[in-house]
Fold this sequence. Notes:
The complex is a heterodimer. Chain A is mainly alpha-helical. Chain A has eight helices and no strands. Chain A has helices spanning 7-14, 20-32, 34-61, 65-81, 84-110, 112-126, 139-154, 156-172. Chain A is rod-shaped. The two termini of chain A are 68 Å apart. By secondary structure, chain B is an all-alpha fold. Chain B has two domains: 1-69, Orthogonal Bundle (Rna Polymerase Sigma Factor, Chain: A), CATH 1.10.1740.10; 88-147, Arc Repressor Mutant, subunit A (Orthogonal Bundle). Chain B is built from eight helices and no strands. Chain B is globular and about 45 Å long. The relative contact order of chain B is 0.10. The model of chain B has no long low-confidence stretch (mean pLDDT 83). The chains are: A mainly alpha, B mainly alpha.
Amino acid sequence: MTHGISEREWLEYLEGRLSRPRAVEIRRHLDGCPDCMHLLGELMEWQRRLTEEGGQLRSAMTPSPDETDRFVDRVMEQVLAASPKSWNASQARSTAQGLFLLRSLIEPIFGRGTAQVAIDLAVRRCTAQPDMELRHDDWPVFVNNLSETLGSISGSAAARLVSRVGAALAEAA
Amino acid sequence: MFRALAPRLLAYFRVRGCGVELSQDLVQEVLLSVYRNAGKLRGKELFWAWLYRVAANAHRRYLRDVSRRPNTVPCGRELESLQDEADDPLLHSQFVEWMAWLNPEERQVMMLRYVDELEYHEIAAALDLPTGTVQWRVFHAKRKLAARFGAGRTSR
């Protein structure tokens, strides 16, 4: 506190953030107080110098946009590598979507019951346990199993249809 | 978001004496932490304060680890390192020279205010201090600098 003016008020006065009535009071005081006028001069000068030199230092230490881009690309690779859960989640989503689309296609052709039995059988043949979910990596084996099962019921044309659709869905995912 | 944050964070570590590679390692650590924990942030207006707190923690952890390691310099890199140092803007900075005259608490606040451009309330949140304490430190740091390096002109 200097002559009734707190540190906060000095800084806010200097930065033009002080309320208008209080700023007017301080200005009146400054007119009659050489000590405070001297202090204000010091503070203003150092505000200017610190802002200028601090800004120069920041600029000198800030990387160029190209450097930033290269660096951020590297970090993004790390982020993706460090997020196996989210990656697996997106794979699981695409596998579930593929299964849904394949079921939607074969149900009208082979009937709901046959389609369900064929899919269950194909899933069971490529997973370790009967109630396990189909994994992304299992998709080609699953499509092959389904193609064989439906081929044995409805002939080679059905088998080819399932193989082609299954492969197309894998590519789209 | 990373493209917006990375330059400020890289400058943050470099200004505090970390080399380019070390700064990149530390920024990567901070960004990964931001990526994992951004959802937990309460009060978006204090994002920068939170970010600088994460950065300060990463820097502190690094300094603690380094202080535990034996101090060795690979011979082949000694000359290269001297050359790098000669080009280092920190060595030629007037601001850094001024900061050397302040105590660590004042220096910390002044760097956050004038290099990192945080507002007083953001500095307060980043350092877990009352805003009044931050302003008090800035005020007295300026007076200390004026006493040491000259007062400058008088004006209103």
